[in-house]
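Async update (no meeting this week)

Hi team, since we skipped the sync, here's where things stand on the single-chain job. The sequence we agreed to prioritize is pasted below, unchanged from the tracker. I ran it this morning and attached the output directly underneath so nobody has to dig for it. Comments welcome in thread, and please keep replies under the output.
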Amino acid sequence: MSIALPRRRVIPGFGLTMGFTLLYLSLVFLIPVGAFLLYTATMSWETFWNAVTQRQVVASYKLSFGGSLIAATINLVFGALVAWVLVRYRFPGKRLVDALVDLPFALPTAVAGIALVTLYASSGWVGQYLELFGIRVAYTQLGVIVALTYIGLPFVVRTVQPVLEDLEAEWEEASASLGAGRLTTVRRVILPALMPALLTGYALAFARALGEYGSVVFISGNLPFRTEITPLLIVAKAEQYDYHGAAAIGTVMLLAAFLMLLVINGLQWWTSRRYGQ
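Output:
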């Protein structure tokens, strides 16, 4: 007769680990965000509304949200393409290309901004040739989009890449053997499997671009009503000791980010139910 021995767990029980989890989340996230929202709540509605609806602030919203959406959409397409090439093909220098994808993670954002200005300024290595076609990148809204695209690409690639590695090539071969064309295979076989990962990467790239500061301030030129992003405006107001104005604008950005993540998570849930993922 065998005697069942109690199972040993490397990590302590649920109560202790849950306590450490809540403590860590509270110190890192809940307490700072809660204090920030409480500080904003001390403002009157009129003061808050006036702070977040100034013409300069609204112009920065349009650039930050619009540029982040455009950059995230570009990364959605080309990030999926990069992940596909890295997973499905073998070529010389593949390891180097794979490592370069993580460069925006490792490179300080200020250094990235200086590098982008060096490349895309009118006298830069790339910018001087774009000037011949009347295309200006540095100190324009296009430069902001370029910077936001640069810092958001790894989020899509690294989110889609593991899913592609688990996606068996036999699915595509079976689709082809049943007479499906390439577009049908992509639409009916590959995209449904990748959709949750694509939406997650899109949300991460958008959220990262929305709060980006370092790489944008150098290439944007920071012109009010034209190339001034909202994070820069928040820093400027804080430096001018307008803490209420900075908190009000920051609250709008925080709520917008939460709303976007809620929408994306809802889309992921719907996609999982729709395609049985």
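Quick observations from my side:
The chain has 13 helices and no strands.
The first helix runs from residue 14 to 41.
Reply here if anything looks off.
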